[in-house]
Design brief:
By secondary structure, the protein is an alpha+beta fold. Helix content is 26%, strand content 40%. A 4-stranded antiparallel beta sheet has the order 1-2-6-3. Strands 4-5 form a two-stranded antiparallel ribbon.
Length: 87
């Protein structure tokens, strides 16, 4: 197995993500590598946090267009993961 922190980039700290943690079936939201797949993500979360994962849902987020003065650029695309834990 790879190092879990090569796959997990970091947590997503938003109001929606914090409310998902307080539900009856808690979900946690992470930012992961763009080419990571669901089995790799499941193993990484179980290895890093010593928990049992029930399901993994992934979302590919498109990078936003940004403009700085006269130049137009684009932020890079990224992948967001919703991890549901077993009770």
């Amino acid at each position: 197995m790879k190092d879990p922190y090569e796959i997990l980039v970091g947590p997503v700290i938003t109001e929606k993500a914090m409310n998902l943690q307080k539900t009856e079936q808690p979900q946690y939201v992470f930012r992961v590598r763009l080419n990571a797949n669901k089995p790799e993500i499941k193993k990484a979360v179980e290895g890093a946090f010593k928990v049992k994962v029930e399901s993994v849902n992934t979302v590919r987020m498109k990078g936003k267009m940004r403009r700085i003065r006269f130049r137009v650029g684009k932020r890079s695309d990224w992948k967001k993961v919703y991890v549901t834990l077993k009770k």
